[in-house]
Batch of 2 targets.
Target 1
Amino acid sequence: MTTASTRHAVVVGGSPAGLLAAHVLSAHADKVTLVERDRFPAGPEHRRGVPQDRHTHVLLDSGQRALEELLPGILDELAAQGSPRVGMPEDIVQWQNGRWIRRTPSTGYILTGSRPLTDWAVRERVLKNPRIETVENTEATGLAGDARRVRGVRLRERGTHPVGQGEYVLDAGLVVDATGRGSRAPAWLAAIGAEPPHEEYLETGLAYASRFYHARPADAALGFRGVYIVSNARQQSGAVLMPLEGDRWSLILSGLRGSEPPTDEAGFRDFAATLPHPLVHDWLREAEPAGPIHGFRKTANTRRRYDRPGRRPAGFLATGEALCAFNPVYGQGLAVSALSALALRDALADPRRVPTTRRVQRALSEAARPAWDISAGADKNVPGALGNVMRPRTLDKPVDWYMERLQRRACGNPEIGRVFRSVLHLNTPASALFAPAVARAVLFGPEPAAPTEPPMEPESRAG
Ligand SMILES: Cc1cc2nc3c(=O)[nH]c(=O)nc-3n(C[C@H](O)[C@H](O)[C@H](O)COP(=O)(O)OP(=O)(O)OC[C@H]3O[C@@H](n4cnc5c(N)ncnc54)[C@H](O)[C@@H]3O)c2cc1C
């Protein structure tokens, strides 16, 4: 792939990863066509092609910064639309690794507006670009070309022809797969004689059940703006309660394999009673639902190794969850979509290197790697986890031992907490966890006291 010959690029998938890739490519191609199987709604509405949009989608601060760099002003637009900005750790009651976390002054912020709102804001900005054309209600069914070069994408308008008929080819010098975790691109590549990527997966069986609620006047007196209860080996159920735009809340109940949260009214409420503290169950008693309960079970970490050598064609790239999908409990996917778009921009603009398909794909894979290391790295230790990347490495045992000590200190030591959060939020490389000051506190420092009960007020207010 050279940018000079890539006069027409096609991006398949109109979610954040695809939209942001199209935005970046529009600076290099004469025309970018964005193909989406859904019809885009006019406003911030749920979409059939994105079933996960019924569940809380936090945007980490690394993702906010990347998004702002790509689309200046977007954070102000999200704020104007009411997307709440929640401080960590001050604003939320958090239970992680079996401990409550001190609510000291915030060192990071997450945006907790609904996924439809975030998608709509990004879509509105990106699709204003006259170089980007959308083809909606149309799905990609394969690639055109051969194992050496992709020459376009096979498309079919939805609902107009019986399956297998009505296909046509849209010619392109570059095809980007942004169709999400269910991507069929490995089969598309095989069909043109190319080599599909090796697929790594690791899943804990985590299941979500989520519901939106109207805020009540009494909620204004709550001493928190969110609750985050992370399951562990001894505690199979978790919860995420976060504010949404439009004076609403979103509540996720989650459970590992064998402890999946029910999606019926009574089961949902009873499940909340299995959390390590009754605070969410008590909140639910008075809560006013704003819609039905939705379940979700496809939460495996999946990485397609397009970065590894193989007989794959020039002119084909994968990004977003089509490349690397994460256990959603870490809240990384949107941030990685934005960071990947920055990596694409930088790889295409690098004056020192010809942006071959392989180089650009490596840059995209590298952008997803820190999040993969966190998500798959932590999930390996979840009892009952299954996958083909479970093989222990020599370094795993001492690193796990160190991480266990670090997390015990992160709850009560604000500085360790800050560094730990910064790594989890993809602001800082994981090497920061082993910096001398942190290592000293982890290896030789005493274990600081963590709250014994959920801290219902920030420390600044509790006095
Ligand atoms: C339950 C759940 C909760 C999550 N919570 C968070 C969170 O808190 N924070 C966070 O950052 N991330 C979260 N994620 C991850 C986040 O949803 C993804 O990272 C995000 O959607 C970006 O993915 P994407 O753009 O690659 O793909 P998707 O959003 O899955 O979009 C793929 C798009 O491709 C289209 N498409 C698919 N196939 C075709 C085809 N053949 N032809 C044309 N179009 C096609 C689809 O209609 C869709 O529009 C969560 C995920 C899940 C499952």
Target 2
Amino acid sequence: MGTMARSALTTVYTRGVKPVIFRMHPDRVHDDMITYGSWAQRVTPVVAAAEALLAYEHPALVTEAYGLALRNPLGLGAGLDKNVAIPGILQATGFGFLTFGSVTSRVCDGNPRPWFHRLPAEESLVVHVGLANGGVERVAARLRDLAAHGSPRYTALPFTISIARTNDGLTGDVAEGVEDYVTSVRALDGLSPLIELNISCPNTMVGEAFTSPEALDRLLTAVDAAAPSQRIVLKMPSDKPWEAFRDLVDVALDHRVDGLTLANLRKDRDTVTMDPAVKGNLSGRPVRDLSTELVRRTYLHAGDRLTLAGLGGVFDGRHAYDKITAGATLVELVSGLIFRGPAVVGTIARELVALAQADGFDRVQDAVGSRADVPAALPS
Ligand SMILES: Cc1cc2nc3c(=O)[nH]c(=O)nc-3n(C[C@H](O)[C@H](O)[C@H](O)COP(=O)(O)O)c2cc1C
């Protein structure tokens, strides 16, 4: 029943809905998704019915990570729901966990619009949001409200809050940046199981100020000292040469970092055909092989000292399984939802079980790192 429903919904999305919404500007589609999703999730029987149709449950998918038992290893990556507006809708798609944010210490307007541009042939979204969000205090209040009054239909999933440095005219030196992150860490203390430190947003005025080992060490020293109750995850850049990337992993290993999410948007736009006037960085297919290879190399380097989440271009079960066998315990997606529709999560989950079982694994988690031993050259 679920498989047929997901397959029918995928057909409806790709042949009916997508051609219509892909004629609309992607900024508007994103805004409408948040507005209408916020209303729709209040009708809890509809959300429950959607989840029953979309989510794929199987004991082989249950994944242990960060001391949590997740119903599956698939999570929403940061960026789609910055202010925790539609947790009910997102949960209904069948994810095992959700990432909200990125959120910043001050309210942030982000870059001037447009924020998004589609590259349908490349299955990629060009993103130039610049961390627009309602600020950490608003998100903290929202989380407290959900914990006190939220429907269990959309507060059941474990979640991560992604924190970034505020992107505005007040941005100062590294010390100011450290203080900015720590302000957000303190504001969210105790309100989520995990905090993701986004050090790799490529769309900001000051660039990626914390992707040098020295600056990252200062940031993580301050976060260690703040001692939040949450586990800490780092959101890594996708465009560093391996040696520079490995240096950042080594800094993470010296601190209270439990995991890495690999990786953020791709800055190198030479691999796609696009109008040079369009601002932003690439999601989706252009990040796929690059992030899988970063997972593989990081897993070989750090072993099980860090929990890895592979993110970038995951549209089907094979893409997710490649990241798992390269060493990712968790797999996240954002663009997959946009290009394949809401049934994609359940479809990937079902395909993951089949792929793991075909390789002789009882549980998908048993396949983690099973093909990590042959590092290839970083794809261009
Ligand atoms: C619409 C959109 C907004 C994003 N915003 C953020 C963000 O706020 N913080 C962040 O760490 N990454 C952000 N990202 C990057 C994604 O989390 C992810 O790293 C990247 O898109 C690759 O995954 P994908 O191919 O599944 O989209 C955003 C991506 C998209 C498509």
